């Protein structure tokens, strides 16, 4: 372990330890909360058949934004009304009009309809959970080493 001239631990190590102990649990909490919410939506949603009715191109990102195609999806809701919505996940390849898709419909109305099978919605919260846990463990380990 690196020491300062006074014999104590180096300031950057102390600062990193403090940041790991502050940021790690926050990331883990954020990831766990969002993952729990996403999985709850997946559980309560009704799966409906839908069809791609077209596509809209949007620029996404900062600096050099990417141009992505977002499918326009049409589906019949359980009440019988037809709903058209813009998918919230885009791609650089246009999804062909008429392609059959599965739509998750939230019967409570708490979340808008979304395309099923996009488990990537759970990847980001799971990543935050893992990253936060790792940061927390590193922080605790460094704190114990500093004591």
Largest sheet: 5 strands, antiparallel
Shape: elongated
Helix-residue proportion: 40-55%
Give the percentage of residues in beta strands.
25-35%
Following the backbone from N to C, one meets helices and strands in this order, namely HEEEEEH
Provide structural commentary.
The protein is α+β, with helices and mostly antiparallel strands and about 150 residues long. It folds into 2 domains: about 1-45 and about 120-145; about 45-115. Helix content is about 40%, strand content about 25%. It is built from 2 helices and 5 strands. It has helices spanning about 10-45, 120-145, and strands at about 45-60, 65-75, 80-85, 100-105, 115. A 5-stranded antiparallel beta sheet has the order 3-2-1-4-5. Helix 1 packs antiparallel against helix 2 (about 120-145). The longest helix has about 35 residues, at about 10-45. It is elongated and about 75 Å long. The model has no long low-confidence stretch (mean pLDDT about 85).
